[in-house]
Amino acid sequence: MDSSNIRSLVIEDNAVHARLILSLLAKAEAVSFDVVHVDTLTAGLARLAQGGIDVVLLDLVLPDSQELDTFLRLRKEAPDIPVVILSGLEDINLAARAVESGAQAYLIKGQINSAQLERSIRYAIERTRAQSGEWDSPMFRLAQQQFLKAAQIMDLDDNFRQRLLFPQRTQVVTFPFRRDKHEEVETVFGYRVQHVLTMGPTKGGIRYHQEVNLGEVSALAMWMTWKCALMQLPFGGAKGGVRVDPTGFSRKELQRLTRRFTSEIIGMIGPDKDIPAPDMGTDENVMAWIMDTYSQQVGYSVPAVVTGKPVVLGGSLGRKEATGRGVVYTIEDAAKHMGMTLDQCTAVIQGFGNVGSNTARFLAEDGVKIVAVSDATTGIYNPRGLSVGSLLEYIREHRFLKGYPEGEEISNAELLELPCDILVPAALQNQISAENAPRINCKLLAEGANGPTSLEADEILNNKGIFIVPDVLANAGGVTVSYFEWVQGTQNYMWSLDEINSRLHKIMTTAFHAALERSQRDHVDMRTAALIEGIDRITQAKLLRGLFP
Ligand code: NAD
User: Fold this and answer.
1) Can you point out the beta strands (E) in 179-311?
2) Distance between CA atoms of 374 and 412, rounded to whole angstroms?
């Protein structure tokens, strides 16, 4: 669901009330509503059967159905849809009974304004998602399927297979934070997940995004485990997140959100326990606030509780651009293996945040012609090549790519299918599926984002002869320099940028060749080979430690 556009079904037979609700929905500020209005339950159920509705606003007294029976009949046909009851003051007891029977909320017609209506609907959707969908995320299914495929090929002991399918520890929190409009307090969901505690402290980013749920965070934590093991770093995988869309937030709001989230998960994190880092929607400022909140609680400065923080607070030189730099190191290795000359290659990059923009920058330094980039607002295509410097300048000024003048606007879907030598998805998961994989037109796919390719798409791309550098390898530069930052923080070292980059290069190249050799030796694709390398290391460590008690 696109959380900025909510598809609502209003089932209300009173024309005056219906007009009022529709006009309140039209005035909503934070989200837009696509509204379908019907005046009988029969028509409502018929519309629901077609799918695509996010929430129902329901009057209980209709020409073809009366009172609680109206809600129960709707619930029977659509058990998972959030329902907000529209009640008159005289029917308030009836509305309360509907809530007891499973409706998410009720509102008194005539006593609501647009902001209250919008908020009730958003919370109804949130609650339904929290109750039904936490583990059930496509990303978690993908991470588990990838793991099971590798486990089967490597003939993994069944005890390990069961143990590693789910994370070892999870914490789900709900907490309030105050918006800048002082009277508004949002309640949001946050998560911290630690997948494997065998290898040392756990490590993984914190994501602020409206789609975050327990399943998504668990998938990301699982991938972190394989990634750290593949890079031979002394960490298990973790991840965290808050289900919130931070794009419209002021810095003050972001800071309040971060500090409260940190204090909610403070028992889970620590420099020897679990070390957060930036991910989508978070950056070095967010890390500085986490570090400060943690340090305030324990009474002294603990820079090593996070990585990816500003250099002046103990951050590592090179961390900010490390993921993009690592993506490019693996592209250089892959190009050498494939016999491609980089300064004759073209590249398309989806996402122009931390990973995407730095990948573009370093690829351009290698002489690659960047023909298209995109962000959440638009894609920009210029077959003659885009200037990365000018794109970065535009972003600094306008925050998003929308309106960038030196190229043609294209959609993100079109961008992925452009003919090019190198394609780098560096935004979201789940971008290349069985549907668009046949039209992907590159030679090399380097996954900057986590989980951009489905298992079915993997097979299609492999059959087309596209060389894939999988996410656990391609984007591992971030956690590798995070490890350097943690080492420097705990030992009070300061390494130079050259030292950082040359150590990073060595680790990335070693991991690339380990995966490539495994792939050639076992006749498996690069993703499965990289996962097997990681899983193998974890199982060895688990065997050596033995089982407690
Ligand atoms: P970011 O928030 O800095 O940037 C994300 C970019 O994606 C932005 O340009 C945003 O506008 C764009 N985007 C959002 N929705 C989009 C959409 N629907 N279509 C196209 N573009 C869209 O995040 P980031 O840190 O660059 O992370 C990007 C990906 O890389 C994520 O999958 C993340 O898990 C992964 N990753 C990041 C790091 C890191 O060090 N930051 C490390 C490893 C992996």
Assistant:
1) 185-194, 202-209, 236-243, 274-278
2) 7
Give residues with Cβ within 8 angstroms of 289, minimum separation 6: 255, 258, 259, 262
Q: Note the pLDDT of residue 31.
A: 85
**Which residue type occupies 422?**
I
Q: In this structure, what are the phi and psi dihedrals at residue 436, rounded to the nearest 5 degrees?
A: -100, -10
505, containing H or E segment: helix 497-522
Calculate mean pLDDT across residues 39-61.
Answer: 95
Q: What confidence category does residue 115 fall into, taking pLDDT thresholds of 50, 70 and 90?
A: confident
Which residues, including other chains, have CB under 8 Å from residue 431's CB and lie 6 or more apart?
A: 350, 412, 416, 425, 449, 452, 453
pLDDT in tens, 437-450: 999 999 999 999 99
The CATH code of domain 322-477 reads 3.40.50.720
Domain boundaries, the chain: 5-130, 169-313, 322-477
More confident call, 347 vs 184 = 347
pLDDT at 374: 98
**Ligand 1 atom with the shortest distance to the CA of 471:** 44
Helix axes 138-153, 158-165, angle to 10 degrees: 160
Reported as a single tens digit per residue, the pLDDT across 472-505 is 999 999 999 999 999 999 998 889 999 999 999 9
List the structure tokens of 3.
């959380």
Of 109, 203, 239, 320, the catalytic one is 239
Q: Looking at domain 5-130, which of 3.40.640.10, 3.40.50.2300, 3.30.750.24, 3.40.50.300 is its CATH number?
A: 3.40.50.2300
Q: Which atom of ligand 1 is nearest to the CA of 352?
A: 9
Q: What does the alpha-carbon distance between residue 93 and residue 67 come to, in Å, rounded to a whole number?
A: 11
Q: Calculate the alpha carbon distances from 84 to 25, 95, 280 in Å.
A: 13, 9, 32
Nearest to 241 by CA among 263, 284, 271, 211: 211
Q: Is 415 in the pocket of ligand 1 (CB under 6 A)?
A: no
Mutate to test the pocket of ligand 1, among 388, 428, 472 (most ligand atoms within 8 A of CB): 428
Give the residue, by CA position, lying nearest to ligand 1 atom 42. Answer: 478
- Top CATH class of 169-313 equals alpha beta
Per residue in 373-431, pLDDT tens? Answer: 999 999 999 999 999 999 999 999 999 999 999 999 999 999 999 999 999 999 999 99
Q: What is the mean pLDDT of residues 497-516?
A: 98
Check for a shared fold between 5-130 and 322-477: yes
336 is catalytic: no
**Cβ proximity of 424 and 448 under 8 Å:** yes
Q: What is the spatial distance between Cα 132 and Cα 126, in angstroms, rounded to a whole number? A: 10
